[in-house]
Design goal:
five-stranded antiparallel beta sheet, 275 residues, alpha+beta, Beta-lactamase
């Protein structure tokens, strides 16, 4: 792990802005972080805590995954996702809303999930799970914060790594809930996330990913904000990684932006070292 830490520092030195990282080797239990307690904007990575809070509400008997819910005008939000293009009144199950939130990062579906749980309950769930710095301050599309990302959603690399470690160990909410969250995140459309440079990247889309799989979520926002959290698994290793970047330079296209390259290179370095 010391060699990996040195390699991540070397990679990070080549980028502008601020970056933080946390890694947990699930096989050995070893963990390290680089500025992992620094509070940073999450962008859509906060949807992982929303997912966990949703499953906690289900576990508490407040919701059922097969309950019907509706996309309404108050859920509308531009940006990522497809629900914004559908007619208000479109019905789906609670689980389907969660799937849309995680697989294609649908912002309107996220608002549906937040409303089902309650915004403050999302934060309370994180607090009771010992992740007090992970905070959601508003729904997607609300304008109270303007473009100030730190008034929208924040966390730390350490807390996101810790939360995803619980999911990976089947200790988040319950074993069954963790397994279903993993099942959803393994199908995330995350080809621009930490796993981007792995040769088997598209295996997430298969029904049976066999030995090699990744369960992940990422986020991006203006001002060079780029985040990622991933659970990696192979026949040789099993580990969790979270990376936060802020103030990264934009490239000629999203694929060339510094924040993307930061995630890609760090994810590949961790895979080479631990899997």
């Amino acid at each position: 792990m010391q060699e990996l830490q040195a390699e991540l520092r070397r990679i990070g030195a080549g980028f502008s802005g601020t970056w933080t990282v946390a890694v947990t080797d699930l096989a050995s239990g070893e963990h390290f972080g680089i500025d992992e307690d620094q509070v940073m904007p999450t962008a859509s990575l906060i949807k992982v805590p929303v997912l966990v809070a949703l499953y906690a509400a289900v576990h508490a008997g407040l919701l059922r995954l097969d309950d019907q819910t509706r996309y309404e005008e108050q859920h509308y939000c531009r940006g990522s996702g497809v629900l914004q293009h559908l007619a208000p009144g479109t019905r789906m199950t609670v689980r389907d809303a969660a799937v849309l939130m995680m697989i294609i990062s649908d912002n309107a579906a996220t608002n549906m999930c937040v409303d089902l749980v309650g915004l403050e309950q999302v934060n309370e769930t994180m607090r009771t799970m010992s992740f007090p710095m992970t905070r959601l301050f508003q729904r997607w599309g609300d304008r109270a914060a303007g473009l100030d990302s730190r008034k929208m959603w924040v966390s730390t690399a350490g807390e996101i790594c810790g939360l995803m470690t619980l999911i990976a160990r089947h200790e988040a909410v319950s074993a069954d809930a963790s397994e279903d969250m993993l099942r959803i995140m393994r199908r995330s459309d995350g080809r621009a996330e930490l796993s981007h440079l792995l040769p088997w990247n598209e295996m997430n889309m298969l029904e049976d990913p066999r030995e090699n799989w990744v369960a992940e979520k990422g986020g991006a926002f203006i001002n060079g904000i780029r985040t990622g959290g991933s659970i990696f698994h192979s026949g040789r290793g099993h580990f969790v990684m979270s990376v936060f970047g802020e103030g990264m330079l934009a490239g000629a296209s999203g694929r060339e932006a510094e924040g993307n390259r930061l995630l890609w290179e760090m994810g590949k370095a961790a895979w080479d070292a631990l899997a």
